[in-house]
Amino acid sequence: MRTVLLAVVAAFAFAATPAFADAKVGIVDLQRALNEVEEGAAAKNALKKEFDAKQKQLDARQTELKTLKDELDAQSTMMTQEKKQEKVADLQRKLMEVQQLYMSLQQDLSKREQEATAKIFEKMGLILKQMGENGSYDVILERSAAPYFNPAREVTDELVRRYNAAYGTSKKK
Q1: In terms of CB atoms within 10 Å, which of 17, 29, 108, 165 comes out highest?
Q2: Per-residue pLDDT tens digits for 129-160
Q3: For 2-172, which CATH superfamily applies?
């Protein structure tokens, strides 16, 4: 949020300068670009496959827990108090294990997603810098920092095209 606020303040400060009338401003939607570049789509698919596999693990563990709870509920009237407490403790322990596994998997997937997107955003930053330095733009703002902009100022498609040309799957072969 602080970055967006700083970008908005910078945009207004930039707009207040007399030279603004001649300035060429570009607007980029980095989230859309991330989803559209080949590397971003591939990373998203790889993470989804991992997530699906880990979700199957969790689903199996949850099914096991439900079965144990159903057995406990069905047999509890025939168990001694000691045996019932033992089963409840075992069920609670397994529930805690599943919750810890879930948290661990979520943290791992979140970390991997951040690592993958950080590399892509870094490369996008280099391309945006080149776009500005080659004289095409005086300033390029993230779409979220611009409450309104002329759609003709949108440079996301150009960023995606340049990114794929530089880092796309055809470059990796």
Answers
A1: 29
A2: 999 988 778 999 999 998 888 999 999 999 99
A3: Skp domain (3.30.910.20)
